[in-house]
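Re-run requested by the PI after the first attempt was lost when the workstation crashed. Everything re-entered from the original request form. Ligand of interest: magnesium ion.
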Amino acid sequence: VERTLSIIKPNAVAKNAIGAILSRFEQAGLRIVAARMLHLSREQATAFYAVHRERPFFAELVEFMTSGPVTVQVLEGEGAIALHREVMGATDPAKAAPGTIRADFADSLTENAVHGSDSAETAAAEIAFFFPEGVCE
Ligand code: ATP
Ligand code: MG
C-alpha cells in the first residue's frame, strides 16, 4: 500500500479545522498511520521546502509555515499520493474544485491550508524528515 506525507498548515490550524480536514482524508478512504503536531522552526521550514529555495515566493512561504503550529500526518491507502492531492484540490484555491479542502479552507495561494507529497520519492523523503524513527506497520 502507498503512503504520503500530509501537513495541515498554520492557517487551517488557526481556523480550528484540524478535525474537519482529517475527516475528509478518512472519508476519502485514507488511513492515518502516524501523526504529530509541531511549530516549525525557520531551519525546519527551509529544509523541508529546499526545492523551492530559488522561487520568488520562498521567503513568504517560510514565513507563513513558521507562523503557527501545524499537524503532520502519514496517510496510507491505495494510490494515496494521488488520492490525497485530489482531496486537497489545486495549489491555487481559485482553481481548486468545489468540495476540495483548498476550496473550503485556503485563504490565498500561499496560505492554502494543506500540503501533500507529489511523488513516491518525495513521499519517502518527507515521511523520513518528520518521522525519522519510522512509522508503525
Ligand atoms: P504543497 O507542496 O504544499 O502540497 P503544491 O505541491 O500544490 O503544494 P508547490 O508548487 O509544491 O505546490 O508549492 C509549495 C507551496 O508554496 C504551495 O502549497 C503554496 O503554499 C506555496 N506557493 C506555490 N506557488 C506559489 C506562488 N506562486 N505564490 C505564493 N505561494 C506559492
Ligand atoms: Mg509541492
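Saved to the shared folder this time. The two ends are 11 Å apart (CA to CA).
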